Amino acid sequence: MSDSKFLKGTLILTVGTFFIKFLGMIYVIPFYHLVGTQGGALYNYGYNPYTIFLSIATAGVPLAVSKFVSKYNALGQYRTSRKMFTSGLTLLTITGILSFLILYIIAPYIAPATDPKYGNSTQDIVMVIRMTSVALIIVPMQSIIRGFFQGHQSMGPTTMSQLIEQIVRIIFLLGSCYLVIKVFHGSIALAIGWSTFAAFVGAAAGLGILLWYWFSRKKYLDELLEKDTTGIDIPLSTMFKELLTYAIPFVFVGMAIPLYTQIDNQTFNHAMISIGKGKIADTALSILNMYARQLSNIPVSLATAFSLTLVPTITKFYIAKDHKGLQRQVSQIFQLVLFLTAPAAIGMAVLGYPLYTAFFSSSDLGGMLLTWCAPNSIFFALYSISAAVLQGINKQKHAVLGTLYGVIIKAVINIPLIKLMQANGSILATEIGFTVSIVYICIQIKRQANISFNLILRRSLLIMIFVTIMAIAVKIVESICSLFLSYEASRGQAIMILIPSILVGMIVYIYLSAKSGLMEKMLGKTITSKMKRIVLRRG
User: Fold this and answer.
1) Nearest to 203 by CA among 259, 246, 145, 151
2) Looking at the keywords, is Membrane present (predicted)?
3) What are the angstrom distances between the C-alpha of 227 and each of 73, 76, 398?
4) CB distance 421 to 275 below 8 Å
5) Which of 44, 384, 466, 525 meets the CB 3.0–4.6 Å disulfide criterion with 512?
6) Count of other CB atoms within 10 angstroms of residue 359
7) Closest CA to 214 of 162, 140, 148
8) Nearest-angstrom CA–CA distance, 142 and 296
């Protein structure tokens, strides 16, 4: 495979992933205005168990299959790749059906016990979980087809199918909510049930796109089989053992955020009721895990996209024993993710109140939780990247252990911190949990690959200094604008506060980064020159 083809595939997958994640954030704005915080909480209760079961059912298959197919294609064993694909497709169809049946049956046992007088009923949550579970029948089939194409260095089918899936899901989700509530005057619970069923409808559309790619390219793929003259026939048991070795670490690391969310779902209401805050428990959880998180996830999308393409690159340097290349790649990716994520996250925190009003509605609780929640994206981003590095150097066990330690810490301290700090305690517990994971994983990266973090730490300090200066400038502009405008008055006034605040923040951060030479080290000379011409007015 040529470097240009690799870079093209990386670019397609990175840009596509970012755009798909961005669509996943945008839809919550009209969704909020249709179902409110009660509907958001119910959606979160029902969708998160599905996310966990989906991770188990697919078992990290896209990346694992991609790695498997790429390896055996490179060895000329195309029949081995095809054999694994056809057998794996059958296996994942079975695991998908079993996952659907299990989730459907156990829904009453995993649904959080809630008091209807404070919000949603347990019966409503069970209904939503069961309607969501249907998607498990077909999504695993999607995952192995995507992995097969990625193993052939073809990223288009994955990106296009995910894009179509997301678009169809969002259209069905919003359309069904609108019809149930506005046309048929049905309940919010029924609307949320149909909106979660959108996962099945979107998955069916995505599968249709993948099947079209498969049949249109089958002739070319069959020609590859004729090139296999090795005569090697690896037993299925050996193939699946190797595939699971790749897959299990991917699935566990990918489950980190859903597991953190499920801990909140199971403990948050009880803890809030115990301190006399039961009336706002559902609302706070809805804002925390649905609306505020969607906004704060925008910077994380970039890190997620990077992590998808980072593993094979890191593996290449590690296998080749190119320590300098490995050191450079790891150092660069940590710096770049922090350089792009930190200003966005801290900027959101500073502008939390007007930002929440602009996207949703005026809410002191919403503004406060977004202010506290926004920095989470820095922790999520660093965790995604550090775990991807460990997987790239084939030290998946430590990525799993690091994730497990963080989840345990979250589970242990969540209730005490909620009782101490209310909803903010949940956010702090999440940040502490991810900090434990990041520190452990980075220690293992240093030990296992002899990677130095000295330059990363120095540059990180410089980035945070610039971010702090930027945050001060943003706060000053916001305070001045607030003398004449009020974000509480209307969405329009909130936007009028946000525009100059964000522009000043961007100019300050770009100016400091460009003048110090940091931007050139992060983004290269071409992009830096363009930024300088725009911000510093240099021709």
Assistant:
1) 145
2) yes
3) 10, 7, 39
4) no
5) 466
6) 22
7) 148
8) 28
